[in-house]
Design brief:
Blueprint: H1 3-15, H2 19-34, H3 37-40, E1 44-47, H4 58-66, E2 70-77, E3 80-85, E4 92-94, E5 100-102, E6 107-108, E7 115-118, E8 122-124, E9 129-130, H5 136-141, E10 147-151, E11 157-158, E12 172-174, E13 179-181
Parallel strand pairs: 1-2, 1-7, 7-10, 8-11, 10-12
Antiparallel strand pairs: 2-3, 3-6, 4-5, 8-9, 12-13
Helix pairs in contact: 2-4
Length: about 190
């Protein structure tokens, strides 16, 4: 099966999850994430903003603000994923691919990031991820030494995903069911 075929299947599967399930699971994922040492020890956090049935991140962003963390969100410019500070929901407007983005971005260097919450259609326990296929997050992750955590519904954890040379693995995955410490040693 090609990555493109797998993307279609994974997206369709995620859309089949009820809104009630996604809401409840997202709250549990946020609760688990914000109790991790990985979260508590980091002050500059990049968080994706939810689209297409992804884990809802609004509660995570609000918790970060409440804890005095600097919240960074993605801003697409051409083929680049830039890092922009977010201090208020009112800064956002629909951007590339319908993803909310800051209207007037305040950019930071990716090297300043301490934690990146990474979206995907699927993950495996070795930290491989299946993104949407444009490579935005993979290119960004190569520019930062930040800890990479995937947020996913339990159904998004697959046995094995294909991997290409330009793909970046993540180090932890938080689902409503468990916290997975990824094994880089798995091939």
């Amino acid at each position: 099966m090609t990555k493109q075929e797998l993307r279609k299947i994974c997206l369709a599967s995620r859309y089949q999850l009820s809104p009630e399930f996604r809401e409840k699971a997202s709250r549990e994922i946020a609760r688990k994430l914000t109790r991790l040492t990985s979260w508590r020890n980091r002050k500059v956090i990049m968080c994706f903003l939810t689209i297409r049935g992804e884990v809802e991140t609004k509660e995570i962003v609000e918790q970060a603000w409440q804890e005095g963390k600097t919240v960074i969100v993605p801003k697409v410019e051409g083929k680049k994923l830039l890092c922009s500070k977010l201090t208020s929901w009112s800064q956002l407007a629909p951007g590339t691919f319908g993803v909310p983005e800051p209207r007037d971005p305040v950019l930071i260097d990716p090297g300043e990031l301490e934690l990146v919450l990474v979206p995907a259609l699927a993950y495996d326990r070795a930290g491989r991820r299946l993104g949407y296929g444009a490579g935005y997050f993979d290119r960004l992750l190569k520019k930062t030494g930040a800890l990479r955590i995937g947020l996913a519904y339990g159904e998004q954890i697959l046995d094995h995903l294909p991997e290409e040379a330009n793909d970046c693995r993540i180090e932890e995955i938080v689902t409503e069911k468990e916290i997975i410490i990824c094994s880089e040693g798995e091939k």
